[in-house]
Amino acid sequence: MKLIIATIKPFKLEEVREALTGIGVRGMMVTEIKGFGSQSGHTEIYRGAEYAVNFVPKIKLEIVVSSSMTDQVIETIKTTAQTGKIGDGKIFVLDVQQAVRVRTGETDADAL
Fold first, then answer.
1. pLDDT score at 47
2. Contact 81, 16 (CB under 8 A)
3. What are residue 65's phi and psi, to 5 degrees?
4. Domain coordinates of the chain in residue numbers?
5. What is the pTM of this model?
6. How many other C-beta atoms lie within 10 A of the C-beta of residue 97?
7. Predicted pLDDT at 104
8. Where would I find the beta strands (DSSP E) of the chain?
């Protein structure tokens, strides 16, 4: 099993969710985050005063899938979330040692 952590632009969330559901992803965790990378923030004007926004709003997706689905999920996120502009996000993949469904006690692939 693999844990896929992806950061995407907030307005792409629904489109990515629909695409992942379409390929058989049955669940994910979504968190609103702030961060910076190459984008390095930007400046905005609020009530006539200019100020720096050093952390840019993003969405973090956490998805656990079977190892066989990993490449398909990565490709789906990559193509769906891409705008071609700086700040499109990142995808990280980690190994998952164990998964347990709390309600039933099912483990590993059965728990997904």
1. 74
2. yes
3. -135, 165
4. 2-111
5. 0.86
6. 7
7. 94
8. 2-8, 29-35, 42-46, 49-53, 56-65, 90-95
Helices (H), the chain: 13-22, 70-81
- For the chain, which residues score pLDDT lower than 70? 39-46, 50-51
Name every residue whose Cβ is closer than 8 Å to that of residue 1 and which is 6 or more positions away in sequence: 64, 65, 66, 67, 95, 96, 99, 108, 109, 112
- C-alpha span between 59 and 72 (Å, rounded): 20
CA–CA gap between residue 23 and residue 37 (Å, rounded): 30
Considering the four listed CATH numbers 3.90.1150.10, 3.30.70.120, 3.60.15.10, 3.40.640.10, the one that applies to the domain covering 2-111 is 3.30.70.120
With contact defined as beta carbons under 8 Å apart, do 108 and 1 qualify?
yes
Per-residue model confidence (pLDDT) at position 92: 98
Q: Which two tokens stand for residue 60?
A: 């973090």
pLDDT at 85: 87
